Automatic annotation (TrEMBL):
This is Galactose oxidase. The keyword Signal applies. PROSITE patterns: TAT. It holds the Pfam family GO-like_E_set. The keyword Signal applies. Residues 1-30 form the signal peptide. The lineage of its organism: Bacteria, Bacillati, Actinomycetota, Actinomycetes, Kitasatosporales. Residues 596-688 form the Galactose oxidase-like Early set domain. Keywords: Signal.
Amino acid sequence: MNTYRRRTALVAVGALTAGLLLTAPQPASAANLIRNPGFETAGAGDMPYCWEKSGWGDNDFAFTTTPDAHTGSKAMKVELTRRVDGDRKALITESAECAPVVTPGRQYDLGLWYKTTTPDASVTLFRHDTTAGWQYWTDLKTLEMAGTWTEATVRTPEVPAGTDRISWGVSVYGTGSATTDDYTMEQVAAPVPPPECTGTAEQCANGKWDVLPTKNPVRSMHSVVLNNGKVLLIAGSGNNESMFRAGTFTSAVYDPQKGTYKVIPTPKDMFCAGHVQLQDGRVLVMSGNKAYPVPGGHGYEGFKDSYVFDPETETYSRTNDMNDGHWYPSATILGNGDVISFGGLREDSSGSVTAELFSEAEQQWQPLWKVNQTWSYWGLYPSMILMQDGRLFYSGSHVFGNNIPGTGSAIYDYAANTITQVPGLQKKDERDQSASVLLPPAQDQKVLTLGGGNIDSNPEANRLTDIIDLKRPDPSYAAGPPIPQGTVDLGDGPVPQTGDQGKMYVSAVLLPDGKVLETGGALHNRANPVFETSVFDPESETFDPVAVDPEARGYHSSAFLLPDGRVMTTGDNPGNGSWNHDVSVYSPPYLFKGPRPSITSVIDTEWNYGDTQRITVDRPIAKAELIRPAAVTHSSDPNQRFVDLPLSVDGGNVDLNVTSNPNLAPPGWYMLFAVDANGVPSVAKWVHLQGPRALKATDASAHVHDFADAPEGKVTGPGKKRTSQKVSPAISGCDRHYGSINVCVPTDFPAEVRKTTAARCAWLKANDYGRLKVNGKDDPLGLDRDRDGITCGKKDLTRR
């Protein structure tokens, strides 16, 4: 498997010193922010004034000031004659004298004229952070090969906060040359004033929730947005033992356009399976529930079976088996289209230490001997996020009980078969059912982790957030702002949260305006729903409370983005075994800010890496992006990502520049949104990304810059081969000595009700458990003091 690992270092190989000018410098014009845009002013050494040599890696190169100019008498030629790795680039000198001043939040139009003999040339930007100094920002545009002078234009993303200057130029990262001249840089005009509100003042500020009139017909805990705009809702047995025993397994396809559901025959109990969308838009579903727990015996068991769901035929077909059972497995698509999976429970209910690899080329799970193994137990639904160099970041989000040993988060390198612990995650053993998301845009490589608790010890869930910048040479989590508090239902109706009360079972959804919606959750294990929804802004790193979902959304709930820009939420499965079939849909504030832009045409829906793709819009837009459709369960969707598309605008024609790095946007179907200056998005169009075109498959990340290069945490390699990890039968936080299998009596009650039988029984009554049958002779929670086989009777409450 190619993980496209890059070890890079930006090295300025010809930085200028002040003075030694042969002629007076040419100032920037009133509009053009570039000093010496045509290289006509000589500088120190062999580089023009305000330009420097830069690059890295093993290659043979030359920088030449050539008379073959677009205008004037000079142009700059950068050439690679041999390349093993790395690049060479001519950049604006990173100094206060030369680097253009920029304003955070504003955008800039960049332009240049060029000729190239290689398809591997790109417009590259660096930015000066007032705290951290100069750092790589982004690659904006891949230059098409051109034998004659050709103009290239592109618009930057909004300048990040804390940035005061930028530097940019053209990188060459394949053999051949790029000759450039006549650079321009102009600040984009300020955005238009905000439009008038088209809804109520409350809707314009906080959005609006609607509970749909038609209920979800299945007990779905898995939600996948398909490439035709419909939604696959997978239940399997729906955490219902009677349906399991009857062999009744269900899924449904929801059509948001029609508001209808179609129940789909489902071949196996996919309750708590893993799932991911393959490159062609089909859905790979792996493992599921082989058996429910037996009191005093085994716990949940996972099977080896795997299936593919086809959105066109709306049917499942079986693949070959996995090497191991994996109840609650991870599923991450890689830059080459392969899928890697870890964790979960085996067929004997022990923890799986087997890494699994599904080959895109072969369309099957690979035999064990073909897959690198560390023999590590990653837990259940470990959140494994693909990084821009092909490594995986384990964020620390998982389900059920304590985190893995160590710091609770790590960088996993498949090619080197090593795990490097990453520090900083707060309360790492209370991040059960937290959510983690790669923040917009994916190019920034920042991950946000929110909330969590611990199903085994059952403390009050927390409101912690942690943010990590994976571009930093030695990344570590830093504490983020606390999740806003809402209300919590402790049994007598909602009351305001107090102290440090937060929530587990958090849902986090990327929005097309570049923000993150977090919603739903509960204070304890499958009890005490929290009603709170807010929007996180990655730029300011702040939360803004918004309208609240009126429905409880705890265990087995899902939230996901629809192609029309709304967010849909489903499910809730409290410990008493009931299920919420109501479906809610949230319309964010941006849908009440006036007319939406419309993508009137997409010239080509088949996209390759490094492409420039043209769309037309009916009115001006400020940005465009690709959002990977959701495949979410249990607060977990590690493949969710928002990929910025730098754009060039010519009236209603917009040219979008597609990343050349498949690790930033793994192959598959994406929702394409166009967004105006007020953050109002279009309805999405579907595009299919694959390739690469200009880059070779063995070097698909030929232009990835220095980040997370040498983490200082503890590094471990492959461990001793073993078959499994011992796991408690009570790993799901449920004591199976009581009630039916789909009822979850906590193994540990909340602190305030642990001391007496009366208090525990009152808590069960408040949460609608009723009186429960005792399974067997053991009564570990002391709920059947009179030994009549039924919990919480009158004599149970009076006996000591």
